[in-house]
Design goal:
single chain; 286 residues; alpha/beta; 8-stranded parallel beta sheet; 9 helices; 8 strands; Metal_Hydrolase; Amidohydrolase; Metallo-dep_Lactonases; Amidohydro-rel
């Protein structure tokens, strides 16, 4: 089963996507399963993980309702406020759905780069561990040292770095991104999504060769069992089509990686990390 571990659905009239304005161009419209379906078929992708795009529990509930009627949806990474007094109660309620996989605080948008190590946030993340739920880390390079400190304080947390932590690919900058990401990769329970790279490159002039050094470095740090493909569709449309994103990654993985390694990147690793069982996967050919 090939899995896209990171994509989004949204409906503008829901009203909680503060970042989605007319200035967002091609993104300023509704995107749903019927829009993504032909792209999934073209790349042989049988299942996806929908990731939150609004900092509201209501949006998480909206995505979970989509799972019931959309066979390609394997699960949802939602949003719950880690500083809310009812954090655990909300987790318990959302966890009633078998499609609720974990949460993603929108850390990249917060003024406090050290938000993830606030005492109340750390306690909430320990609660996440107790409920065997995952954490998506939406961070920029400057926030990676705080992510490493958080991981040291919350043993056993399953975490995945989204979009390889958004290095400045357009400018070709690799440090301190590389060194700080290595500190995060040292934790064996942490994975990394090979996603969101085309929008960190030059939107109009990017080439696969611009992405490859970053992809290869992530692959070196995490190895073939802890990286996963994510399209970041429809956000990727700002710079590339779904096919272009998938093809660029397929062509840029280390040449010494086996077919089994490559298959893991495009499916098995996401299933293992998110605890996606057979009951959540559609019955289609891999």
């Amino acid at each position: 089963m090939r899995i896209d571990a990171h994509q989004h659905y949204w409906r503008l009239d829901r009203g909680d996507y503060g970042w989605l304005t007319p200035d967002a161009g091609i993104l300023y419209r509704d995107y749903g399963p019927s829009d993504l379906a032909p792209h999934l078929r073209s790349r042989g992708i049988g299942a996806t993980v929908a990731v939150q795009a609004a900092p509201t529990v209501a949006e998480t509930e909206y995505l979970l309702t989509l799972c019931a009627g959309e066979p390609t949806l394997a699960g949802v990474v939602g949003w719950v406020d880690p500083e809310a007094d009812d954090f655990e109660a909300t987790l318990v309620r959302l966890k009633r759905s078998p499609y609720f996989l974990g949460i993603r605080p929108m850390l990249q948008d917060l003024e406090d780069d050290a938000y993830i190590v606030r005492p109340k946030v750390l306690e909430s993340l320990r609660t996440l561990v107790r409920h065997d739920l995952a954490l998506d880390l939406l961070v920029r390079p400057r926030q990676l040292p705080h992510a490493a400190a958080m991981l040291a304080a919350v043993p056993g947390l399953r975490a995945v770095v989204d979009h390889i932590a958004k290095p400045d690919i357009a400018a070709g900058i690799t440090e301190p991104w590389r060194s700080d990401l290595a500190a995060v990769a040292a934790y064996p329970n942490v994975y990394c999504k090979l996603s969101g790279m085309v929008t960190e490159a030059d939107h109009r002039a990017w080439r696969r060769e611009h992405l490859e050094p970053y992809i290869r470095e992530v692959c070196r740090l995490f190895g073939p069992q802890r990286v996963m493909f994510g399209s970041d569709w429809p956000v990727c449309l700002l710079a590339a089509s779904y096919d272009e994103v998938a093809a660029a990654l397929e062509a840029s993985l280390p040449p010494e990686w086996t077919e089994a390694d490559r298959a893991a990147v495009f499916g098995a690793n996401a299933a293992a990390f998110y605890r996606i069982g057979n009951s959540k996967l559609p019955e289609v050919a891999s």
